[in-house]
Amino acid sequence: FQLTVPGLLSVSLTNVSNQIESFMSLYNSEGLILATKLADARGMSIELERVISDGDYYICIGDATGKHISLVPYLLKSNFTAAKPIACQETKQGSISVRGAKEIYNFTASANDAVTIRAVETSGSLWAYLELYAPDGIKLAEAFDTIDKVLPVTGKYTIIVRDHGNNDTGDYCLIFEKLNNPCSPAITCGQ
Q: Which positions ≥6 away from 65 have C-beta within 8 Å?
């Protein structure tokens, strides 16, 4: 499959027979494995979730034991949530209106930029939880309400906002700031 924008890919695999121990792997266009999930037992469902950028991707499904090569029926579901851009010094209003939902944002930054990302709850019972992902999809940080991080490489980063327990809803404001390379003009004395 091909994606034209970055975001969060969620794929679930249900083995409708109990014959095999399923596995699922996500590959990029160069054949590099980005993520692999193995079922805990025969016939169990597995879920794979990964932040990915635009490009071509492939999903490989198989039997972890290598014993079964016959066709085995599967139910494969995928969901892709496109990221919304957020600029430096910008505040975005958001809402988690369904239990378990996630809001996805992205921004571009340079290596060694020091950033602060904050989520402030404004209504409901939401307990904002933040996740920060590098351009290669690796999770860099996660925290309640605030992430302070020096970024390792230049590229497009992804922020996920969700409820900590994935069971409450509410509104929030998301604030993104660069500390060592500010976006807005410096405030001078007397302003």
A: 20, 21
